Amino acid sequence: MELLSTNRIAMFAGSREEEARLMVKQIFQERQHHFNADHECQSKWTRVELRPKIVDLVFNIMMKMVAGKRYNGNGIVDEEARQFQSIMREISELLGSSTINDFLPFLQRIDFQGVERRMIRVKEKMDSFFQSLVDDHRKIKIESGENNNIETSMSFVDVILSLQDSNPQAYDDETIKGLMLAMLLAGTDTAVITIEWAMSLLLNHANTMQKAWLEINGNVGNDRLVNESDYSKLNFLQSVINETFRLFPGVPVILPRESSDDCTLSGFDIKKGTILLINAWSIHREEKQWEDATSFIPERFGKDGAEGSNKLLMFGGGRRICPGGLLARRVVCLGLGSLIQSFEWERIGADAIDLTEEPGLSMCKLHPLLALCKPRQPMIHILNKL
Length: 386
Ligand code: HEM
Description:
Layout: H1 6-11, H2 13-35, E1 46-49, H3 50-67, H4 79-96, H5 100-103, H6 115-144, H7 156-166, H8 173-187, H9 189-204, H10 206-220, H11 235-247, E2 253-258, E3 263-265, E4 268-270, E5 275-279, H12 280-284, H13 325-342, E6 343-346, E7 370-375, H14 380-385
Antiparallel strand pairs: 1-7, 2-5, 3-4, 6-7
Helix pairs in contact: 2-3, 2-13, 3-8, 3-9, 4-6, 6-8, 9-11, 9-13, 10-11
Bound molecules: protoporphyrin IX containing FE.
Keywords: Heme, Iron, Metal-binding, Monooxygenase, Oxidoreductase
Cofactor: heme
């Protein structure tokens, strides 16, 4: 309620838009650099590896909201940023790895493969990194006294530190660090993956890409970049995002449940303590629920972009439903909208983009997306000024 409410999310709209602007600017400037100030360059295609751009966008958005600072990209590679990136990379690797110890419990005692030792090491590094962030914020809060209590400039750490004042036991430093990690782990990869899948699907369906651009062009125009207040007017873009979530839900098997009592589910008797895994990926491709279920057809979500979307499970469901759904939609819509509005996109060569998935907790594209891009002619005057 304190961290992901509509109001709190709205407070950071400006900083998310700033990150989208920086992403577009970086792609545009890298092209200029590549063509070495060739005046004809705007009509030429260049190759872009999209994943690192999207990672920078989402990571910086999340870090700004969580800790009030950005860490990735646009030349920012100081020691602190490097340290942070390496911790996050190691955590992701460990989260996605399965170890033989899980299946042969007697090996746990000797920590076969050394996974547990790695986990403890990274936990210590992460703990001291987050603790120093919390301490920095606490110091600034104390030094600036009341002046720092300006709601609009408060990052998540500041919000929880102010709650700590009134209830120190409920909001101790462990809780703050746990929340920071939960937000970064749950909110970064998933949104990156979704934007990359959406771009891949659009590159395989040029008419749909054109339709999404026409909608942005009609509602936003060419005199400014798309922003979050445009979201409600971009129904087709929302259909594209829903269809991406349907075919490639970032978390294909939602977090496990355990039955608290014996029960019967769809005619199956389930014992108390059974772990229940829900395969959202498969449910989203169920022929009985969706016509032509494996095809990419955003139009199926109707004029408002949301018809039938209540059948989707990309954010899970029930009491443990993803609390970041609203934020995720905003980030994905802004990232995707900015890329489509500013540039024309094409595949490299005639082959369709390979949509093979990588196995793991979150469902990434196996091969990072490479595409050709050039600035949209009517947007060049804006891109030149970014
Ligand atoms: C496209 C982006 C995202 C997708 C596809 C996604 C998906 C999910 C799914 C499927 C779950 C499990 C829900 C369940 O078990 O019912 C989940 C949990 C969670 N998500 Fe997200 N998520 C996304 C973005 C975010 C963001 C941006 C944040 C926060 C900043 C976030 C924070 C969380 C947290 C904290 C949980 C654990 C909730 C709990 O166990 O009580 N997620 N997410």
